[in-house]
Each structure stands twice: as C-alpha cells, then as structure tokens.
Amino acid sequence: MDRNGANANGARERYEVQEHDVLVIGAGGAGLRAAVAAADNGLSVGIVTKSLLGKAHTVMAEGGIAAALGNVDSEDGWQTHFMDTMKSGKFINDWQMAEIFAKEAPQRVYELEQWGALFNRTDRGGISQRPFGAHTYRRLCHVGDRTGLELIRTMQEKVLTTESKVYMETTVTKLFKKDGRVVGALAYTRESGKFIYIKAKAVVMATGGWGRIFEVTSNSWEGTGDGVVLSYDAGADLVDMEMMQFHPTGMVWPPGVRGLLVTEGVRGEGGLLKNAEGERYMERYDPQRMELSSRDVVARANYTEVQEGRGTEHGGVALDITHLGYDNIIKKLPTMHEQFLKLADIDIAREPMEVFPTVHYTMGGVKVDPETCASSVPGLYAAGEVAGGLHGANRLGGNSLSDLLVFGRRAGEGASAYVLESTHSAGTDEREVETEIGRVLLPFENKAGTESPYLIQQELQSVMMEHANLMRTEDSLKEGLGKVLGLKDRLEGLRVQGSRLFNPGWHTAQDVRYLVQISEIILRTALERKERRGAQWRLDYDGPDEELGRVNFIVSKDGQGEIGIEPREIPPMPEHLSELFREKVVDSAGGERRGAESQF
Amino acid sequence: MASITAAKNRLPWWVGPITVSTVLVLFTVYAMYVVFFRPDGQYQSLLSPFYSPPVGIPGWMPGWVTAPMLVLWIPLGFRATCYYYRKAYYRAFFWDPPACSSKAQEREPRGNNYNGERALFILNNIHRYFLYGSIIVVAFLWYETAVSFFPEGGFGMTIGSLVLLTNIVLLSGYTFSCHSFRHLVGGNKDCYSCVKSGGSTGSEVRSENFLRKLRRKTYNGVSVINGQHASWAWASLFMLLIADLYIRLLQAGVITDLRIF
Amino acid sequence: MDDRTADGGGLAPQAHANANGTAGENGKTTKLKIFRGDAEGGEEVEYELPMVEGMVVLDAVLNVQAEQAGDLAVRWNCKAAHCGSCSAEINGKPKLLCKTRMEEYDGEEIRVHPLKAFPVIKDLVSDVSWNYEVSRSMTPFTSDAQAPFTMYEEDVERLYEPKKCIECFMCQDVCHVLRTHNKHAEFAGPRFFVRAQWMEMHPMDNQNRLKYLHEERGGVGYCNITKCCTEVCPVGIKITDNAIIPLKERVADEYYDPAKWLMRKLRGNRNGARNGG
Questions:
Q1: ipTM here
Q2: Residue in A190, A258, A267, A495 annotated catalytic
Q3: Do C79 and C166 have their domain in common?
Q4: How many structural domains is chain A composed of?
Q5: Mutation to test the A interface, candidates C35, C78, C100, most A Cβ within 10 Å
Q6: What is the model's pTM?
Q7: 3-state DSSP call for residue A197?
C-alpha cells in the first residue's frame, strides 16, 4: 500500500504502509530474541535493522556468555552470579533485574544450544566455561573468541524460521503515539531512501548503545543510540545515563584500528598487563584480582599508567599472552591472533599487544520494568544495551550476551501480552507521518545550510573524548556541555547533497541528531552524580557518596521539551537478596564463600 | 614463504591453468605411449609401477592388448575422478572458471548450458570405486617394492628399490588422503562417541570403545593429509613418471642400477 | 542520479578529489579508484587522500566519504573482520575492505568495485538479500533431544570451522556458478553448503538435507569444486575440502552408490532415512 505525504516543499511524497502487532527495532541478540518470543505467541512481527541481518554489534562480543551453569565450578549458582553483578554495578543496579537475570541466564544458554549454537565442551561433554574479570567462578560459556557471532547467527537462523518480516538496512526516525500509547514508527529504507510507515500495537526497542559519541570506541557506526533518543522523545524515562563503560583493552596502533576491542578473554586466559617498565602494575590497583578485576578498575589503571608516563610507544600498556604458547593461542584466541597479525603486523604469540581503554558499552538507557521490560510509555518496551538498570555503574564482562537473551525474551513476551490484552488499533493521524517525512528530508532542502554531518560528528566525538572521558571534573563537564550545546545549534544548518539512494551523508545527518542529544544528557547527568562510583569517576570528589549510592538519576523530557533530571530512590533489597551479602552463603552444591566484601 | 605467495599472486591469471593443462597433456601422452607400445616393464627385480599388479594376458585377447591396459585404467580412473584433478582439469581444460579473478572469469565460456557435475561429469561420483581398486593396486605396489629390496635373492638395496619406495610412499599418501577415503573412515558419521546420532538424553555415557577411538584417530589423520591432497597428487604423478623412466633407462642399458649394499 | 559526482553528500570541506592536497602526518598521499554508479551503470572515480600508517582500504574509502564524497555508499560495521559487511572487489578479487591494507598494493593501482554476483545498488553496495532467501529455504538445525546436550569435543571439533563463517558472501560472489552462470534460482552457493555441512554433521541434528542439496534448491551438483570460494574465504574456512566435498560424498552415498543402494533395498530404508550415526 502506498500513501502520499508531503515533503518540505509541499510536494507529495509517496510512502509504503505496513502493519504489525509488534515492531522490533534492532536486530542484535535482544531484538531477535524478542521477535522470536512475539512470533511464538502467534503475533505478526516486524524487525527493523539499520544493517543487514546478522551484522549487529552482537557479533563483536568475543569472550562469552555469563550464566551460572556450574559446569566447571560446581559451586557456582545464581546467587553468586547475582552478587557479582550487584557488586560490580556498585549497588545502583535494579536488584530485581539482576535477580531475574542470574536465575534465567542458564535457561537462555541451553535454549541457544537447542537452536543449534555450539559451545566449547568440557571433558564431560557439557558446555565449557572460562574465567572472566570479577566473576567469582568460571562462568563464561564460549566458543573460542567468537561467542557473539555464534549467538547472532543462531538467533538469525531461528528468526528466519518464523514468519517475521525483516526490514534490512532501514532506519527508524520517529515513534508515533496516540492516546498516550506508542502505535507505530516512521522508517526509511537506506538503500532506496523511500519511506515506510509501520503501524504497530507495540514497539520493542533493541537498538543497542551509543559508543559512537566518542572518537575511540569499539562500537561500529551503528552505535548511535537511536533507540534511546526515540524513546526519550516518546516520553520514556531513562536511567543511569552517566554510566559509560570503558573497556580496559582496545587496540592502539595502527591509527585506523584505534579503539578496536581486544577481548577480555585474553586476560581470562592468563594475559598479563605490564607498563613500559615491565611492571605488572595491577598489583598496585587490585592485588587480589589483578588483571581480572572489574572493568572500571582495570580501565582506570591502564589510563593512569599512561597518564603518569609509563606508557608504551604508541601510548598504551602492554598486554602479554605469549606465555600461553602458539598452539593454545590459536585454539583459544584465534580471532585475536588473526586480528593483530593482519591489522597491526603483531604476532601475539611472540610479542605483547599494545592496549588502551576504549569506549565499549552503555550501562544506562531506557528504564524498564524488570518483569516485562515495559518502559514508562505504554506500548514501548526495551531490552539489551538500550535498556538500563541491570548493570548499574559497571557491567561485568559476559553479562551482556545473557542480558540480551534474558530480557530480549521478556520484552517480547511483555509486548505480546500487552498486544493480546489490549483492544487499541495501531497507527496514528497520517498528518503526523507527513510532517515527520518533511523533517527527515530537510537536510536535502536546506539550501542555506553549510554544515557537514560528518564534521559535526567528528567534532562531537572529540568534545566527548576531552570532557566526558573516564576521569571527569565539574569544570570540564560544563565546558563540554557548552560545546555540545553549540553543536546542537549547528544541527539546524545540516545540509546533504546527492540523491536519496543509499546516501551515507544523509544517514549520518539522522545519526548526528541522536548523538548530540545523548551527549547532552550524559554530560548533564554526569554533573549530577558528584562522586566516584564505577564508570562515573569524578576527580573533584574523593570517593563514593553514601547518599548517591541509594539513587538513580532518571532523565525524561519535561513539559518544555527540555531535559529533566530527577534522583530516584532505589527501593531496599528484599530479605532473601540482602541476606546474601551478609552471611556466608552455602549453595546447593555445598560450596561456600564470604558474601560480605568491600564495594569498592 | 610469504614472498613466494606474493610473487605467485603477481603472475598473470592464465599462468596457472596453462601450466596445469600442459603437464597433464604431457603425462597423458606418455602414459598412452607406455600403454600401447611398451608391453614389458620388468628389469630384474624392478617392476615399473605402470605394470602392477602383473596380470597375465588371457590367450583369447587380441594381440595388441598389453599388460598395462589391463591395470592402468584403475589408477588413471582414480586420478580422472579425483576431487583435486577435477578442479585442475575443469580449470585448465574447460576454463570453467580458469582462475578466480574477475578478469579470468570474464573469459569463462558463458551460455545456458552449464551443468557442473550434473550432466556428463555426474560420472565422477564413481570415484569411490576407483579408490577401492586403487587400494588393491597400492597393495601390489608395496609387494613389488618389497621384492625390489631383494635384488639377487638376498636382502639389499639399489637406487631402483629406493625409487620404487619413494614412489609407493607418495602414491599411498595420495591414495589415503583421498576425499572419498576420508568420507569412508569417518566423514559419513555424525558422531564417534554417541550411542546414536540425532538424539541424546543428555545423560548418556560416552562410549569410547577401541573401534570408535580408532575411527576418530584415523579420520583426524586422514583429514590432516587430505589438506595436502593436491601436493600428494602432483608429487605422486611425477614420481610415477620418474620410476617408469628409470626402469626404461635400465632396460635400454643407458644406466645401471647402483647397488647401495 | 544526475548529481553523482565526486563531491556529493554531506558538504565536503575539500571540494574535489584531485584538487585535494591534504597529506598524512608524513606528507604522503595515496590514490585509489572507486566505482561510482548504480544499477544503470557508472564509472571509476579517482580520489587522492592522505596516507596514514597501517591504513586499510576501508579507512581510505571512509576518508573519501567524509572529506570528498559524502554520498559514497559503502557497507561496513565492525571494522574488525568479524561481521563480514564490507565485502567488495579490489582489483577484481573479493576482499574485506577492513582487512586489506593499502600497503599490500604498494605501487599498484587500487580499484575498488562492488560485489558482482549480485545486483549493484549504488557505488560499493550490492543487493545481497538473495542470500537470506536461500537461508530461509533450508531446514534449520532441529533436534529431538533436549538441551543441555552431552557432546564431546572430539565429536564437534570439525563443526567449529564452518561455524566461523561471517557471511561476507565473498564465496558467493566469486563462485562462477552464480557469478558467470547465474544459477541463483537452483544453487545455494558455498556459504550455504558450509551451513548445511555443520547441520548435517551435528551429532544432535535429526534432519536430512541431502534431498535439498541434490534435488532441490541446494544444487550441490552444479559445484565443480574449482575452489575459488576457498581461496577468498576471509576466515580461512576450507569450504571445498571440508564442506562441499563431504556433502557431495554423502550425496553420492544416497544417490550414486550402487552398493549402498542395494544395502538400503535389503534393509528396507528409503531415501532420507539415513541415520548418520
């Protein structure tokens, strides 16, 4: 079905109309799992993805998927996984999410195996598990160092067995609301530049993170945070937006690959961090856990070593895995071996890697109900990296992949239940569609405009690198905010040339709007959290603040369309959870460990 | 090694297919010559590999039938249907495709009559039967090689016996690195340890008896040498020529077979 | 597509390629030719850009996109050879742009074109959606056993290799059955033989795809094992030796082996009832 809309010149713009019960935006692990859940409920599902199917950032997850199967360390159980997650998140996580997560992760891993995913095996024929930073036990189910690929391919092939319609290389520009509910979205096909108006009774947001606001990031071009801004614009609450995870080990050299991820699996397999003086400096930062400390600690250690002049040739630290030997490296870290050999001419079996922190993950995001993943806007659900709450102030390695599946499924189920219960119809007034089409086409029409979207993106990235890095101060954050607001004003002047046929300049003009909006939110929330906690490390404050440790900062669009920030009290943990941290825990397998441990 | 590969990559695309077709044509011409014009391949204790197993020619056969004709079709058929040689001659003779770059593929014959291995070349599926035959031939060649180590009744070693030994080692490598052999010893199984495939209660015990273990080890071993099947193919082909030529030179009295001990 | 020139898209600070004198930190520049055009045709356009140490071809293309040709279409995602998005043809050979260093072509001309076995959309982007249709046409992994499975390393180790596939579709691009003979309707292509192989050899899978491979969409008989797919695989899967030939052998078991056929007759097994184990 084709309809006519108006572009900025008033000329009629034809667009396609589609309708689904559930529209999933994003085709990474969470989006695909949500789609499978909704399709299993007999609903009509549409999946929109900016890339081709199976190319989502999930493929970059290398280390593994954390789930307390207890295959290798039988003492492991959901309680320990829960505690590790909470401790690593510095207790501002949503404890209910963390509980659900730790309990359901094993089922999701087995489900993946049922659908054809293949993991490395133990001697007894079970799924093998490897150690990882700040996980008490060996917990990461993995297949070499390409677990994310296995997950996305399995989910992709599963989704192709359902009736779901996949809109590949399609970008969503706006969510439509009617009577307070989300009822559809406008999208355009990147390939042709043609618009699709997708009516939907419910929308599951699974667009991933927004690492692209930084220059040095492990994220692909896709990580522009579309979903968080779309949700925010639709009125949804956001949580913990100040929390950006810096992965301790990104590549440093050559310049083209700066920021490219070096999996934590290297340290999981015994990799050692050394500074230019050859000192194994983690001894000074976390003598107990050393290289396998939590990511925020290791990232700051690496950063500090370089800042204090003990960095390597290209401004990094050395990560050494040579002692593992060539055969083991090829077996356990084949992708890393290849990556360094091919891109940096370094054989990691012979010489150490040079690494430095790189922006990796966004803990914050859309605030959701732990059971159903419903946002504060009816009809809008969120799961995966775009949702906030599970990881608190710092995410544990390997928790992301299980997060995708646990909450992807719950979002799909939540959206399905909502659609099955409600009687509302999808779609909104078509004038809204026409107005939005006009707005999206504006950069083509903007004859007076002089701004290049690429240039604004580059400038924004360097502003965020300078002012919102892993060490922050009030003055610098404020200065950064001023610069971002300046860039925001310049968005008006965006102009693109060429046709609408696969035009990356035009696509970037959409992305850069999201990036600027998110940067402003991050800077503002970072100004609010005046303490050192996990990924938020304020140099102008000495340590964690007890008061702030009991709140999350909730962001929502206020009446004037401005960013509203409100501290929200974290409800106290129920007895069955809080007691875990007080007592010695004896789990079913009879293993025991101390629950009480310093938070920092 | 890297520089060799780089140099190879810089050669024009047609060097590969032309070289292969030239070598294969020369070999075929030589083999035909042997088959039709050389009834005898024996020199003292040395038997040219072209003539093994040394079957007698039944009296009712026409006079032009030579011994090689009765056996040589097995190894030749084995090579003609071999997965590696198939690649080689599809590329070299049929130019389908001649090489993998876009320039080369532009030269490929077009049209709607491409059938791959669905029409005439469907016959190549008989490969495994040539393998079975070749295994028998290889057994005979081992026997002939053993015989060559007894030049004048007692144990000894001549250059000729070393030539035959090298030949049979390479030929065995070629025969047992065959894709069909790999399939036979394990490629046709989905599981070595499970009681059965396609279903598991998740609690079954690994049943690793001796035969299963042997099968797995054999499959893994064959997989390793299978990776070099092309090298085995060429090496054994050239060695075959060398062995036959050597014996022919001995027959002609051009050289003598040096005795080492 | 009237405005397809070297300086399209986002307003470029540098107006035209050849007028661009900016240089890398050492003052060196480099050149490459990129196909600019769409389904109706197009031409190579030469760009000059600063040479940065260790630069891959994708870096160069993105630099051109940001500085000189904002509407230059190229697919990419991870930039780490993990996702298989940035497949294109460099000097006539399929390559991942993110994994191919500029230095490899020292002194040579670099010409970047889109994959040719599929319809070109624009510039370096081809329409690869056909591959997803093929994927959908295959019987997925199916097991009547309930996970967690008990499987041993020795039984699954040969499945890791096909599972490495990043779906860059370069094997599909280079395969002459698709590229030259256009058998898209009746041939699945190397990528999907790789997929079929792990499913067929998976100890827990209970399906049989030989009919699909031999009589239906799979069309494995069209493959004449000329190994171009193996030559281009960026993750080093020995596609021909370890996926296609093992499948051809299984097809031969089922369709071309008189002894097996006789054995099946005697045992009363029909096609498709292969137990595999």
A1: 0.89
A2: A267
A3: no
A4: 3
A5: C78
A6: 0.91
A7: strand
